[in-house]
Design brief:
This protein is of the alpha/beta class. The chain folds into 2 domains: 188 residues, Rossmann fold (3-Layer(aba) Sandwich), CATH 3.40.50; 170 residues, N-(1-d-carboxylethyl)-l-norvaline Dehydrogenase, domain 2 (Orthogonal Bundle), CATH 1.10.1040. The protein has 18 helices and 12 strands. Helix 5 links the parallel strand 7 and strand 8. Helix 8 runs antiparallel to helix 10, helix 8 crosses helix 15 and helix 10 crosses helix 15. The chain is globular.
């Protein structure tokens, strides 16, 4: 792997572009909107700050032309929010060669499945492998125009769809990202979606404070009260019950969060989401959302806990807390997230039973 096209120049995309350039890879950075890459184009690259070092990294190509970015790339690294996956998959479909490798960082919940289904419906190649992580490899933010700061490069789960390609794909990317942990299926990555587990509950239970202050408080410490932690703990029980019913191996949220480098051993031992969030050193200064029309609801509900609910229905598991959070988010956003989010049909799973699930995930078809 020598040439990487990074598709999306937000927090995750800029962090990946700077870091991969630092590692000696040839990076092409694509973004749909010119104004969002204007500062990078003007200076010719990205200033990297944080735990991976400080320095300026010149990017070989910065463009809003998708075909130009993709041509000849060994790996297509999708760094957009999940809300942009459908658009991007439709745009990529006619440009992809057979055997293309796509990496979603992150995949959110069901991202690889939905991306592959959109490619199929859009006339994309028959042979394509999609890898994904459960959450963004980096805890990062754009801290000034053309400057990105990385506070942590965490341990994340990785798998592919179809699953029978996971070993070769993992070997290719692991040489650059040693923190990747290989798991059997893209439902193992999906159910380890950290943002889905934490963000909707924390945002909805702090709704008044967010609207009153514009999010001027620390989300993971001041906003993560014992009550918020109790709701996350109950969501966690529903998530793990669903995984067990689907024949998956559920890793506790606190362990996934610890692997990410985002909490303490003591919090893991306690099993408490409240402690895990409050003892998160990399996240401690991150502010709350500026409004309720923010990705902690508009992304982490439809592409986070909505597919949890649909997968739970497939498994025959009741999810009262997940259902309540979806309903409340739908009310405050004025959107029916249950139907607008990722359904089994959008993930290409409308004909999959839980008894045929293992074969589907491994082979990519029934």
């Amino acid at each position: 792997m020598k040439r990487v096209a990074i598709l999306g120049a937000g927090n995750a995309g800029q962090a990946a572009a700077a870091h991969m350039t630092q590692m000696g890879l040839e990076v092409r950075l694509y973004n749909r909107w010119e104004n969002e890459i204007e500062a990078i184009k003007k200076q010719g690259g990205i200033q990297l700050e944080g735990v991976l070092g400080s320095g300026f990294h010149r990017i070989s190509l910065i463009t809003k032309n998708l075909k130009e970015a993709m041509d000849g790339a060994d790996l297509l690294w999708v760094a957009t929010p999940a809300v942009a996956h459908e658009f991007l998959a439709k745009e990529m479909a006619p440009l992809l060669p057979e055997g293309a490798k796509i990496f979603l960082n992150p995949g959110s919940t069901g991202g690889a499945l939905a991306f592959r289904e959109t490619l199929r419906r859009s006339g994309g190649p028959k042979e394509v492998v999609i890898g994904e992580t459960n959450t963004n490899i980096y805890i990062t933010r754009i801290t000034a125009p053309g400057v990105v700061t990385i506070w942590n490069e965490g341990g994340v789960h990785f798998s592919t769809f179809p699953g029978n390609r996971r070993e070769e794909f993992y070997k290719e990317v692991h040489q650059y990202y040693k923190t990747l942990v290989l798991v059997p299926t893209v439902l193992d990555t999906a159910f380890a979606n950290i943002n889905a587990i934490m963000h909707p509950a924390g945002t909805l239970m702090n709704a008044g404070w967010i609207e009153k202050t514009g999010g001027n408080f620390r989300f993971y410490t001041e906003g993560a009260t014992a009550g918020v932690g109790a709701v996350v703990d109950q969501l966690e029980l529903e998530r793990r019950s669903t995984m067990l019913a689907l024949g998956l191996d559920p890793k506790p949220f606190v362990e996934v969060f610890y692997l990410y480098g985002a909490t303490t051993k003591e919090a893991v031992a306690s099993g408490s989401a409240y402690r895990a969030m409050n003892e998160s050193e990399p996240n401690k200064e991150i502010k709350a959302p500026p409004s309720l029309q923010y990705r902690y609801l508009t992304e982490d509900v439809p592409f986070g806990i909505v597919p949890y609910k649909h997968l739970a229905h497939l498994a025959g598991v009741d999810t009262p807390v997940i259902s309540a959070l979806i309903l409340l988010a739908s009310v405050v956003n004025g959107v029916d997230w249950l139907s607008k989010g990722l359904t089994l049909e959008k993930m290409g799973m409308q004909e999959v039973t839980k008894f045929a699930l293992k074969r589907f995930l491994e082979e990519g078809h029934l």
